[in-house]
Design brief:
Layout (H helix, E strand, L loop, with lengths): L1 H9 L1 H17 L4 H7 L8 H20 L9 H19 L4 H21 L5 H17 L6 H25 L6
C-alpha cells in the first residue's frame, strides 16, 4: 500500500505493474485475508498502525477482486481505468504535433508491439501489450529465468516509450500538459 501510494505519485507505469503484482500475490494466497496476513503481511516491518492500514488495504482489494470476479485472472477495475487513461493519453499524444519525440519513440517501438501481439495473439490495446510485456519480463526476472536477447531489445524500447508516457501522464495530472 505504501509503495503503491508513492509509485502512483511518481510513475504511473510502475504503479500499474506493482498493482498487477499485488493482484497476483493475493491470488497466490487464494484471496484469503487470514492466510495473506499470517504468511505474507506478517513479514512487513511496519508499526501497528501501518500494519492495520496495510491489512485494510489488502482486505479491500480482496473484496474488489471477489466482487469483480477477478479471483483467478484479469485486473481490477481500478487498474483497468488507469490502463485506459494511459491508452487515451497515448492516442492524444500521437494525434498532436507538439510531441514529435514521443511519436518517434512510438514508431521505433511499433515493430516490437506488432511482433508481441502476433506472437501472443493479444487483443488489447498497444499500451496493454506494452504493459503485458513489461510485466512478463518482470516475472521472468523474479523467477531468475533467462530472457532472450530479442526480448531484452524489445523491453528496452518499450521501457523508453512507457517512461515517456508516464512522464506525460504526470504532467497531464498536474495540469502542465498542453495537447
Amino acid at each position: 500500500m505504501f509503495v503503491a501510494q508513492e509509485l502512483r505519485k511518481r510513475n504511473i507505469v510502475e504503479y500499474l505493474l506493482y498493482m498487477w503484482q499485488v493482484e497476483d500475490i493475493i491470488r497466490a494466497y487464494s484471496c484469503v485475508l487470514t492466510k495473506l496476513k499470517s504468511e505474507y503481511l506478517s513479514r512487513f516491518d511496519v508499526d501497528e498502525e501501518q500494519r492495520e492500514e496495510l491489512i485494510d488495504w489488502y482486505a479491500n482489494l480482496i473484496t474488489m477482486m471477489n466482487q469483480e470476479g477477478k479471483r483467478d485472472e484479469g485486473h481490477l477495475q481500478i487498474n483497468a481505468i488507469v490502463l485506459q487513461q494511459l491508452e487515451e493519453l497515448h492516442q492524444e499524444l500521437l494525434k498532436s504535433t507538439k510531441f514529435p519525440f514521443y511519436t518517434a519513440a512510438y514508431y521505433k517501438t511499433l515493430p516490437f508491439i506488432v511482433e508481441l501481439r502476433h506472437k501472443g495473439g493479444a487483443e488489447g490495446s498497444e499500451i496493454e501489450t506494452c504493459m503485458n510485456a513489461l510485466y512478463g519480463v518482470m516475472l521472468l526476472r523474479l523467477q531468475q529465468k533467462p530472457i532472450s536477447e530479442e526480448t531484452q531489445k524489445a523491453v528496452v524500447q518499450i521501457t523508453q516509450l512507457m517512461g515517456l508516457l508516464s512522464d506525460y501522464y504526470q504532467k497531464d495530472k498536474q495540469g502542465e500538459l498542453e495537447l
